[in-house]
Amino acid sequence: MLDLLDIEGLYPLYSRVERYLEEFPEERKTLQIDGPYDEAFYQKLLDLSTEDDGTVAFALTKVQQYRVAMTAKDCSIMIALSPCLQDASSDQTPVVPSSRSRFAFSVSVLDLDLKPYESIPHQYKLDGKIVNYYSKTVCAKDNAVMSTRFKESEDCTLVLHKV
């Protein structure tokens, strides 16, 4: 688990930061909403406290942690393997030995741009749409199945006929 809050838990904290920025727009740079994403920025993200003290600092930390987690969840990892000769020197290139051959490899991580702060409302709305769609389709399906079965809360009369 990369983030401690889902979008429903995060959105009120995002709203707290937004209200603060509406009142103090000049603080956007100080709060590092748009960067720079330097060592000081990442040090603030190490605060894993879960007790909301009502401050903008707590809300901002959770929002930034969420953005980093969403970035990590969305990044791509590319692994390239290429066969190399058994006697080829591996001083420069890392090599993975296997039972029959050796492979030179490289690993790259792509799309590590921090997810935009402004995308949080969109993610919140999208999550709501997904939940609503799921509720409509699954609940409707469950209700249709339940209507054909005996429900514990319903009265049931057993009628016997002579045979």
Describe what this molecule looks like in 3D.
This protein is α+β, with helices and mostly antiparallel strands and 163 residues long. The chain folds into two domains: 5-75 and 111-149, no CATH class; 76-110, no CATH class. Helices cover 43% and strands 13% of the residues. It has helices spanning 7-23, 39-44, 56-74, 120-147; strands at residues 76-84, 95-97, 102-110. β2 (95-97) and β3 form a beta hairpin. The longest helix has 28 residues, at 120-147. 9% of the residues are buried. The model has no long low-confidence stretch (mean pLDDT 84). This is Inositol-pentakisphosphate 2-kinase. Keywords: ATP-binding, Kinase, Nucleotide-binding, Transferase. It is an enzyme of class 2 (transferase).
Counting structural domains, the number is 2
Q: Please, how many helices?
A: 4
Poorly predicted sequence stretches spanning 5 or more consecutive residues: none
Extended strand count: 3
Strand order of the largest sheet: 1-3-2
Q: Tell me the major beta sheet.
A: 3 strands, antiparallel
**Terminus-to-terminus distance:** 64 Å
Task: Classify the secondary structure makeup into a structural class.
Answer: alpha+beta
Give the C-alpha Rg: 27 Å
Beta-strand residue fraction: 5-15%
- What fraction, in percent, of the residue positions are helical? 40-55%
- Characterize the overall form: flat
Mean pLDDT: 84
Q: Could you give the order of the helices and strands?
A: HHHEEEH
